[in-house]
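User: Could you check the structure of this?
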Amino acid sequence: MSITARLAELGVELPEPAKPVASYVSFVQTGNLLHISGQLSNDASGGIKGTVGVDVTPEQAQAAARLCAINLIAQMKSALDGDLDRVVRVVKLGGFVQAGPGFTAIPAVINGCSDLMVEVFGDAGKHARSAVGVYQLPLGFAVEVDAIVEVK
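Assistant: Sure, the predicted structure tokens are below.
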């Protein structure tokens, strides 16, 4: 099954890839590695903003991480001229959660991104990962995730 068909089966619609909001590019390919800049928990409705454990629940934060995954896949599609079947493996995700005092379930939040990568890409979606709690994220978003992807 193609990745596009798998996304449709999962009911995932990819948005237009987000444009950079500062002095960087959305992705860089070097050799067979695609490095994707951090994608925020943003969508057409404005996304999920706030501090996890304060005004964002863990469940909302996990949904925010899923939004990041969708945005990462949209960037992959753009970088690969629309051909997501060129993804060989999701190598590594770097997850950042705007966490409030005492909130330590950072890995569970980033599972929202990790789980979708496996749902979409199967075994090729299994990856190494970092999950870090931070004081603030750009524009007040709750979650940000970047990625390294092997492509053909």
